[in-house]
Amino acid sequence: MLHLYIGDGKGKTTAAMGLALRAAGRGHHVVIGQFLKGGSSGEVEAFSYVPGIDVISYSGLVKFTISMTKEELKSAQTNYPKYFESLVDTAINRRAGVVVWDEILDAVNANLLQVDEVLAAIKKLQDCEIIMTGRNPKVEFIEKADYISEIKKIKHPFDRGIKAREGIEY
User: Fold this and answer.
1) Sign (positive or negative) of CA dihedral 57, 60, 66, 67
2) What residue ranges define each of the domains in the chain, with the CATH number in brackets?
3) CA distance 23 to 85
4) Largest Cα–Cα distance of the chain, in whole Å?
5) Which of 45, 73, 82, 157 is a plausible cystine mate for 68, CB 3.0–4.6 Å?
6) What's this model's pTM, rounded to 2 decimal places?
7) Spatial contact of 1 and 130, defined as CB atoms under 8 Å apart
8) Distance of alpha carbon 16 from its chain centroid, rounded?
C-alpha cells in the first residue's frame, strides 16, 4: 500500500520513521532513502542500532535546488535517478516489507526525479508498504495512494527565527 505524508507542518518524517521503527519491531525489513537531506539526522543515527533497517543516504551534493548552480543542478538531475534506482534494487534484494522515501515528493517537484519512474518503482514494489513524504504531491500519487495524511503547520518556531534544533527537528 502507498502512504503519503504531506503538507507544510512538522512531523512528516517523524511519522514515516515511527512507522519504520514499528515495522522493524515486528520483523519487517525496512529500507529508507532520504532525498534533499544529508544523512546526519538523529533518526539515521538511531537506526544504525536497529536490526532490519537500512538507511541509504544520497552521497552527492545535498542542498536546496534553488541554491544550486546550473552545473550542480544538472549533476543532481543525473545522479538522483541512479540513487533512486539503488533504493528500489535494495528493497527488492532485501525483500523489504516497508520502504520509506523521505522528501521524495519535493525531489519530484524539483525535477530531480520523474513521476513515471516513481510510479514504475511503486509497481515493482507492490508487495511493500511504501511511505512517501513531502509537499505538493502530484495528482498521480494522490490517485494511487491508499493513505494520505496531511500535516498542516499552524505555528512553528521557525516563523520566529528559531533555527532547527538537534534532536528535535533533525
Assistant:
1) positive
2) 2-139 (3.40.50.300)
3) 23
4) 45
5) 73
6) 0.91
7) yes
8) 8
| AA letter at 68 | M
Do 149 and 14 form a contact (C-beta atoms < 8 A)? no
Q: What CA–CA distances, in Å, run from 96 to 23, 24, 29? A: 10, 10, 5
Residue type, 95: R
CA dist 14 and 1 (Å) reads 19
Strands (E), the chain: 2-6, 30-34, 53-57, 98-102, 129-134, 147-150
Residue 39: what pLDDT? Answer: 65
Closest residue by Cα to residue 141 from 13, 4, 7: 4
CA separation, residue 69 to residues 33, 37, 47, 61, 72 (Å): 24, 18, 33, 11, 5
**24-45 pLDDT tens trace:** 999 999 999 999 887 678 898 9
